[in-house]
Design a protein that fits this description.
By secondary structure, the protein is α/β, with parallel strands linked by helices. 33% of the residues lie in helices and 24% in strands. The protein has one domain: Spore Coat Polysaccharide Biosynthesis Protein SpsA, Chain A, CATH 3.90.550.10. It starts with a strand and ends with a helix.
Length: 291
């Protein structure tokens, strides 16, 4: 099963990290020295994704600019002999025609955002990557999922899952665990934010999906669910009646950058993972904690 396209829902308002996101898209907030959106696009590139589909909203044009070439900056760097910086920018820039942008226009939920990409994705399986969730690992989470999908074959749908403490399952979408093959298992049920004590497992649904195109037909008529929004989980429950879903326990450290504490934690974790920054960052934190 070849996965060529990935959908990045980037129309959200980022209310959990206001006021930083009043004028700046949350996807452009930086972890160390790169915006969030660059990390997830890099993850998709590593996984073999060829076409990057961004579902945007108002005040998100800077994301499109980020993935375009800036001739003035390029000329300035060239004149100053900053070839290393030029090489970084060239490496991050997608190939011509490899990006598409479409508008969600109304904040109707993740399911609606995915549905907005239907004409660009077409009739083929695709990935969905939530930009405010980063996974620190090589190979990346999406590559691990695509490798699992290739082994499963057929019309398989896959969800990246992570164990959470049992007393917190009511905060997440939770999936039931069926037959297992290593770190992949058949999902035998899904529920969005179950009441305490009723969750089928403690495996939470995270921000990486591989879905078959039939999900679009379900989303087209999907009624609003939790939060009065069109929920992707509800549509996946519908699709699970005719197609198999699998959970993939990915290897890596997940960071929820949509919260302020998670954003700060991610900066420390990704900084410590950099050989060129690790020692200096450790010393700065040590000095601060000794105050």
């Amino acid at each position: 099963m070849k996965i060529r396209k990935a959908v990045f829902p980037v129309a959200g308002l980022g209310t959990r990290v206001l006021p930083a996101t009043k004028a700046m898209p949350k996807e452009m907030l930086t972890i160390v020295d790169r915006p969030l959106i660059q990390y997830v696009v890099d993850e998709a590139k590593e996984a073999g994704i060829e076409h990057f589909v961004f579902v945007t909203g108002r005040n998100k044009s800077v994301i499109e600019d980020h993935f375009d070439r800036m001739y003035e900056l390029d000329a300035t760097l060239s004149a100053r002999g900053k070839t290393a910086e030029q090489e970084v920018l060239a490496r991050d820039q997608p190939a011509a025609g490899a990006t598409s942008f479409t508008r969600q226009q109304a904040p109707l939920g993740l399911g609606h955002a995915v549905w907005c990409a239907r004409d660009i994705v077409g009739d083929e399986p695709f990935a969905v990557v939530l930009p405010d969730e980063l996974v620190l690992n090589r190979p990346g989470c999406l590559k691990q999922m695509i490798e699992a999908a290739e082994k499963l074959g057929g019309n398989s749908n896959l969800i990246a899952v992570e164990e959470v403490p049992g007393h917190l399952t009511h905060n997440y979408g939770i999936c039931g665990v069926g037959a297992r093959q290593g770190r992949t298992f058949e999902i035998n049920g899904m529920v969005e934010k179950p009441k305490q004590g009723t969750a089928p497992s403690n495996f939470s649904i995270t921000g990486r999906y591989i879905l078959q195109p039939q999900i679009f037909r379900i989303l087209e008529t999907q009624e609003r669910g939790a939060g009065n929004e069109i929920q992707l989980t509800d549509a996946m429950i519908g699709l699970a009646r005719t197609q198999k879903f699998y959970g993939v326990e990915f290897e890596g450290e997940r960071h929820d950058c949509g919260s302020k504490a998670g954003f700060l934690r991610a900066n420390i974790a990704f900084g410590m993972a950099r050989a060129d920054l690790r020692d200096g960052l450790r010393e700065e934190m040590k000095r601060y904690l000794e105050k």
